Structure formats: C-alpha cells, structure tokens
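Problem 12. The chain below contains 85 residues. Write out its predicted structure in token notation.
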Amino acid sequence: MKVFIPIESQTGLNARVDSRLGRARYFLIYDLEQEQTVSVEENHFADAPHGVGIKVANHIVTSGCSAILGATAGPKAAEILEQAG
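Solution.
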C-alpha cells in the first residue's frame, strides 16, 4: 500500500509533515509493503490561485496511493478521493 504524505521540505522521511494537503511544498509517496520511499516531488500546484485541492486529489489517485497521512482534504478534493475509493 502506498501512502501520500504532504511534507515541508525535500528531506524525505526526515521532513516535517505539512498539514496543508494542497499547499504543501513537497509530496512524499511511501510504499508500506516495500518499506521504502517511492518518490519525493515538488508540488507544482501549490501556488495556483484556485483548484489546488482538486489537482492534488487527482494526483493522489493517479499515483496509486491508498491513504493520506497528516492532512485533511477539502470538500471537493475529499469527494474525488472518496469516489476513487
């Protein structure tokens, strides 16, 4: 199972978890079964004027993550995530 974690810096598992899902500066994807980091990536949506939560939710779905750690999705993002299961 892959977990999506919004983080404050590029330091991977050493980074602080960001409570802002859409506006976090970076994302970490961690595979619990393999016990390894899949990726640490910059959030290219963070500075968009609107629709950030929706874009990030779609990114989470396409990345194959099954869970989010440390942040709460807004209502529109939550709807996308719920529909994806």
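Discussion. The first helix runs from residue 52 to 62. Students who got a different answer should revisit the alignment rule from Section 12.3.
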